[in-house]
Design goal:
single chain; 221 residues; 2 domains; 57% helix; elongated
Length: 221
């Protein structure tokens, strides 16, 4: 089991534990007055909290499964809607029925979280980070998008602000972080890349702006 799946399972367990102690405290107070008997079913009326807790997992899933974004978003909204309305519909659902539906949602979330991290999410994450402590050298492809300020000055910021240029390098490195650093150094030293209007700048550093947030580093082999 991956560490990230253990983290989310721990969060789910924490949510259920908090609900248990809250309900236990309520029944303890009532027992002194009315002799109330502790019931286990309301402890598991936590599907809404479990769905909320899964928000980070859903975001990570969307990031790695972009082609499934509509399906995942719709399913998440449905789970959120149903779990948010069970407890407020006392006249339509008995306590046992609500308990069953809450358990189904909890099992779905916990099961899918564990399956996702142990199956395809962990393998995709390993493509980028499994070799950070390795002494071996790997081949990375690094795409660096950048803006040319000399073009913006001539064409106008509004017209050219989102039109990025791009250069791609194949880098040998021990990990993705080293590959990124090497690629950026190579970019500034690359004599084949120069500002469009070279006569109005002294060097590349005053003409080019690297879009750091859009750099792509991919492990090839």
């Amino acid at each position: 089991m991956s560490p990230t799946s253990c983290y989310y399972l721990g969060l789910y367990f924490l949510v259920i534990s908090v609900r248990f102690f809250k309900i236990f405290k309520v029944y303890s107070k009532e027992k002194q007055v009315e002799g109330a008997v502790f019931k286990w079913m309301p402890v598991f009326f936590v599907s809404l909290e479990i769905v909320y807790t899964s928000a980070g997992f859903i975001i990570l899933l969307l990031e790695h499964s972009k082609e499934w974004i509509p399906v995942i978003v719709i399913l998440y909204i449905l789970l959120l809607y149903f779990s948010a309305n069970f407890d407020s519909l006392d006249e339509k659902f008995t306590e046992k029925t609500k308990f069953v539906f809450h358990i189904i949602i909890i099992v779905l979330i916990v099961g899918f979280t564990t399956y996702s991290f142990n199956s395809f999410l962990s393998s995709k994450n390993n493509n980028d980070f499994s070799h950070l402590n390795s002494d071996s050298t790997f081949v990375f492809k690094v795409a660096i998008p950048y803006l040319d300020n000399t073009l913006i000055q001539h064409l106008g910021y509004k017209k050219f602000k989102n039109r990025k240029l791009q250069v791609t390098y194949t880098i040998d490195a021990k990990n993705s972080f080293m590959a990124l650093d090497k690629a950026k150094s190579k970019f500034w030293e690359d004599s084949t890349i120069f500002p469009f209007y070279l006569d109005i700048v002294q060097d590349k550093s005053s003409a080019f702006i690297i879009d750091e947030s859009s750099i792509v580093v991919q492990l090839i082999k």
